[in-house]
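=== RUN LOG ===
request id: a7f3
mode: sequence -> structure
chains: 1
length: 258
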Amino acid sequence: MIKRTTLVAVAAALAMATGTASAQDMKLKIGTEGAYPPFNNLEADGSLVGFDIDIARALCEEMNAECEFVTQDWDGIIPALQAGKFDAIIASMSITEERMEKVSFSEKYYNTPPAVAVPKDSDIGGSAAADLAGKVIGVQGSTTHSNYAEATYTDSDIKQYPTADEYKLDIVNGRLDAVVDDIIVLQEWLATDDGACCKIAGTIKPVPEIHGLGAGIAVRKGEEDLADKLSAAIKAIRANGKYKEINDKYFSFDAYGE
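=== RESULT ===
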């Protein structure tokens, strides 16, 4: 007869092994846009690159999770999360009250300000409503930037585009007077041959009610435990230096913000 103490020991060992396997076997599908450099971009060879992607990989490693990326058009990214196409969105999504009605968020993983870019020969000298009165402004639709533009530039013509690449093409071709987006996205573009047309006219002081609390990771309502695990992983990579390593690959300042 096997002693009771032996059975207990065997059960404990099995429990530990099962727990380890569960940790090792955590699998997540990460949704991202793939059209928002330098944060996330789908390369010609089908690979995903960018700050969001590197951060996502670091978080998965920290959580001991096996992660798979899924690309999704921005307009449908929250419905796709809700439908179970993926488990979390890591795509520079700002944490706003409106979005929190539909999804839950981790804590922020970066927070950078918006800005206005204009053609180099433009006489627009700032980002205030008066500076852009009567002008045609391009923004990516369904973003905090489009919400800000609609609320602020009421005397301007706001044109919304499915992706940032499309508004960039229109300002290059003279169909827009200005564009509004994250300053990092605009600066990255201005540093390329395609962005040689334009310059930064001014930055925009974020409005928390519109721009939110920074970019966070969205999960389905009811899956706050996953959001908490992601928040803990963000804190961990901030503490162990991995965040800084990724940050310094893309930026000359701390993108995490205040």
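=== NOTES ===
The first helix runs from residue 4 to 24.
The chain has a mean pLDDT of 92.
=== END ===
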